[in-house]
Amino acid sequence: MKKLIALLLTATFFCGVAAAANLSDIGYIDVQKVFKDYKETAKAQDELSKKEEAFKKEFEESQTKLEKAEQEGKKPEELQKMKEDLEAKLAPKRDELLKLNERLTVKLQMEILEAVKKVAKKVGVETVLDKQVVITGGMDLSEMVVNELNK
Predict the structure, then answer these.
(1) CATH, range 26-149
(2) Every domain of the chain and the residues it spans
(3) Overall pTM surpassing 0.90 (yes/no)
(4) How far is residue 30's CA from residue 49's CA, in Å, rounded to a whole number?
């Protein structure tokens, strides 16, 4: 009977160790921190900001033209035509801006994903989650991922 109890305790101990080992296979990253600390994010934001400023300037100029035409007493039909022409001129630029934002975001996400995979492989972590979904346990890989990205 004592051997059976000892065997059960040993088995329970090893099950606990195995469960703990599985927990160490989980890592997490603070996605917001990684994006913020990644050097390329600032470059992408600068590029996007420049395009946004150019678009904003052109939009404001078109609004000024419309206001001036209103003040000059242009007919409603003329104002409507002018407004449509200005919108048609700005629409492709707005679409280009949205596409640039999407392209830069996807590029950054892919680079971060690759860095996460490299770091996870180095430290022997099989699963990496966003910090926001982790309640307890796991290994914080955020700094290691940022360092990998900024090499």
Answers:
(1) 3.30.910.20
(2) 26-149
(3) no
(4) 25
CA dihedral 56, 57, 60, 61 (to 10 degrees): -150
User: In terms of Cα–Cα distance, which of 90, 92, 89, 110 is closest to 100?
Assistant: 92
Residue 48, classed as helix, strand or coil, is helix
Please say whether the beta carbons of 10 and 121 come within 8 A.
Answer: no
Reduce the DSSP state of residue 85 to 3 states and report it.
helix
Coil, helix or strand for 79?
helix
d(CA 77, CA 79): 5
The one-character DSSP state at 35 is H
69-118 pLDDT, tens digit each: 888 888 888 888 888 988 999 999 999 999 999 999 999 999 999 999 99
Question: In what helix (H) or strand (E) does residue 115 lie, and over which residues does it extend?
Answer: helix 76-123
User: Using N-to-C axis directions, what is the helix angle for 76-123 and 39-71, rounded to 10°?
Assistant: 170
